[in-house]
Design a protein that fits this description.
By secondary structure, the chain is an alpha/beta fold. The protein folds into 2 domains: 3-55 and 357-424, Urease, subunit C, domain 1; 57-348, TIM Barrel, CATH 3.20.20.140. The chain contains 16 helices and 17 strands. Strand 16 and strand 17 form a beta hairpin. Helix 11 crosses helix 12. The longest helix is centred in the first third of the chain and has 17 residues, at 95-111. The protein binds zinc ion. Zinc ion is lined by residues 61, 63, 216, 253, 305. Zinc ion binds at residues 61, 63, 216, 253, 305.
């Protein structure tokens, strides 16, 4: 049973963290945390101090086929999709391209300390297969799937419902529940790219197989206008409600331009919001109104939204979320964002056994370099969330298994995961 000695920062609540300057974390043979507390003076297998252990990060929204267009500044949304995104996603018809990027994507997640994500693929079922294989090989957890699109995009990116839904169900048969780590999600990309028939079929499949639904909602004003006009709906959310896509296993990305009535209905349905503030800044989409969400107790997760978001590192998104809140006159404590990046994100995705370093949880961990002079929980929190030049995590574990070791990767000649690992595979 590995016994790791390190400093420990854990989310206690949305308002508080637990800081142990000298902790011992014991991991049982099944990869669960058997004990986590102050070092007892006994032996340890490895002394990782002055490093600090945290839970692995949870990224509730990102796109794997956009890995190579990260930083492509061609926004706002609808222009960005046409000029940057759709051309790149078209390349995922080639299984070799898909496999190469999927390998690099999984490495980039692990290198960022992300242990659980909700990831969109391209429209191509074979590219989703490549993603699941890469996530399985790397040892990560994910809720993922191809996007569904049958209108509003180049012909090469459209797949009609009678082909897309059976292919999605085949992915469910192969990958859903794999090793207790992988789930297949139903992902109608957004209303403008889906006919009502496709969305209805998708909602029915999700219901029948108990799958998560993920989609985008109310990201950009032009998108909102086009959507309500196309569907003749009174508002954006109604388009999804009408086809049965809004419930307590639905993750809705962005949620920026919603009316109070839409917020009420979203909350009543128990849907989850994927808050992607860095993407919202980069595409000039606006800011998710945190007070509306909090007033209704809506569950929140943080999404990098790679590649409209500019980093795989969830703490960078937490920092953007802090900025977004300040712009709205709100001052949630930094502990709120650490919570959302870890335990809160895990709970939002229904994973009650993840997101905290304490007995009974699965050992999904990240190890961070932390200067020796950092000796309070508040300092550690500031360093981890807001020090943009802080190095990426040193190690990442999922269920007690090492899935990333930055120093070993560097010693083997690797420089940056999404080039080096991808090219070698
Ligand atoms: Zn997105």
């Amino acid at each position: 049973m590995p016994r790791l000695r390190a400093r420990l920062l854990d989310p206690a609540s949305p308002a508080a963290t637990t800081w142990l300057p000298d902790a011992l974390v014991e991991i049982d043979p099944l990869g669960r945390i058997a004990a986590a507390g102050p070092w007892d003076g006994g032996p340890c297998d490895e002394d990782l101090r002055p490093g600090v252990l945290t839970p692995g990060f949870v990224d509730v929204h990102l796109h794997y086929p956009q890995t190579r267009i990260l930083g492509s500044a061609s926004g706002p949304l609808l222009d960005w999709l046409r000029t940057s995104t759709f051309p790149e996603e078209t390349a995922f018809a080639d299984p070799a391209h898909a496999a190469s990027v999927a390998t690099a994507f999984a490495a980039a997640l692990a290198a960022a300390g992300t242990t659980l994500c909700q990831a969109y693929g391209s429209v191509h079922p074979a590219a989703a297969e490549a993603l699941f294989q890469a996530l399985a090989d790397r040892g990560l957890r994910a809720i993922a799937g191809p996007v569904l699109m049958d209108q509003g995009a180049p012909a090469a990116l459209l797949l009609p419902a009678d082909r897309a839904l059976p292919a999605l169900e085949a992915l469910v048969e192969r990958w859903h529940g794999h090793d207790g780590r992988l789930q297949v999600a139903v992902i109608p990309r957004f209303a403008l790219s889906c006919t009502p028939a496709l969305m209805e079929g998708a909602a029915a499949l999700a219901r029948r197989r108990g799958l998560w639904v993920a989609t985008h909602l109310s990201e950009n004003p032009a998108e909102c206008r086009e959507t309500t006009a196309m569907f003749g709906a009174r508002d954006y959310l109604e388009v999804y409600e009408e086809v049965g896509l809004v419930h307590d296993r639905t993750v809705l990305a962005h949620c920026i331009h919603l009316s109070p009535g839409e917020w009420d209905r979203l909350a009543a349905a128990g849907a989850v919001v994927a808050h992607c503030p860095d993407s919202n800044d980069f595409l000039g989409s606006g800011g998710m109104p945190l007070a509306e969400l909090d007033a209704r107790g809506v569950q929140l997760g943080l999404g990098t939204d790679v590649a409209a978001g500019r980093s795989f590192r969830v703490p960078r998104i937490a920092s953007s979320a802090h900025d977004n809140a300040l712009r709205q006159g709100l001052r949630p404590p930094p502990a709120r964002w650490f919570w959302q990046a870890t335990r809160g994100g895990a709970l939002a995705l229904g994973q009650a056994h993840l997101g905290s370093v304490r007995a009974g949880m699965d050992a999904d961990l990240a190890l961070h370099d932390l200067p020796t002079w950092v000796d309070t929980g508040d300092q550690a929190l500031s360093w981890l969330l807001f020090h943009h030049d802080a190095p990426a995590p040193r190690r990442t574990w999922v269920r007690g298994r090492l899935v990333w070791d930055r120093q070993a990767h560097a010693a083997a000649g690797g420089v940056f995961p999404w080039d080096e690992v991808g090219e070698r595979s």
